[in-house]
Design goal:
Elements: H1 4-27, H2 37-47, E1 53-54, H3 55-59, H4 66-78, E2 82-87, E3 90-98, H5 100-122, H6 127-148
Antiparallel strand pairs: 1-3, 2-3
């Protein structure tokens, strides 16, 4: 019988392995001509924000280091996909949001990526397992936010 610690580590390893396999599968698809997967992650994250956000807030939700995110935001601003605005609450601060073109590209790529995700996950996992997976992942993400915030 596996200990609770062993179960947790085996579950973590399985989660990382599944993530690695799926990311490689998605990266190999021909949907990334408009934006890279990492750029899409930033555009997608911004699309979920109801109002402009500070870069530090964006950083909490993407898998990039702070310096890499800063460089990427610079490139996305140069390409007209992201807009920088002064923070009205702090004149030194900056808030980020999608431009109309950024939102359109995110949606265009997102539709294709969403179909890919649905195909890949639904091919291996039942509807009940998808609900369980979502519940588990949301629990883990909420706990992480509680501990860091």
């Amino acid at each position: 019988m596996r200990s609770r610690s062993r179960l947790a580590n085996d579950a973590w390893e399985a989660l990382l392995s599944a993530h690695s396999v799926l990311i490689k599968q998605f990266a190999a698809e021909g949907i990334w001509s408009d934006v890279s997967m990492r750029e899409y992650d930033v555009l997608y994250t911004l699309s979920k924000c109801p109002q402009p956000v500070r870069q530090s807030e964006l950083h909490r939700h993407v898998l990039l280091s702070q310096p890499a995110l800063s460089r990427m935001v610079d490139r996305l601003v140069e390409r007209g996909l992201v807009h920088r605005d002064s923070d009205p609450a702090d004149g030194r601060g900056v808030r980020l949001s999608l431009t109309a073109d950024g939102r359109a590209r995110q949606r265009r790529v997102g539709l294709r990526h969403g179909l890919s995700v649905a195909r890949a996950v639904a091919a291996q996992v039942s509807a009940e397992e998808m609900r369980q997976l979502e519940t588990i992942c949301r629990k883990l993400a909420a706990r992480s936010r509680e501990e860091s915030g």
